[in-house]
Specification:
It is a single chain. Helix 2 (about 20-60) runs antiparallel to helix 3 (about 65-115). The chain is mostly helical. It is elongated. The protein has helices at about 5-15, 20-60, 65-115. Keywords: Membrane, Transmembrane, Transmembrane helix.
Amino acid sequence: MNTDKIYAEAIANEYALKTASKVVALRKLDRKAKRKAYIFAYSFGIAMSLCLGLGMCLSMQIIGSGTLAMGAGILLGLLGLIGVGINYPIYKKLLLAGKKQYAFEIIQLAREISDGAE
């Protein structure tokens, strides 16, 4: 088996113009199924990372001073740690739900494309 030829064909197929509207529709459905999970994961992850960083700054008294700032920083840091820790499991559940929602349409369209290619 010539792996260079397979690799070259895969690259060429990636750059070839897709005139079949079914392939374009399949890609759009795939992106639509994953979009909610991606948006949530990035935004929640960024927010919780910032929360963690702010908590660290408060607890080390880089921002603010006194025991109140330190206590608030520890609580904020723990909230950020928990949020960062649960981000991936929530992402996986949202991704699974999105895939389940569009599974029938994607499978049906993929079968039409594969049947038409033969």
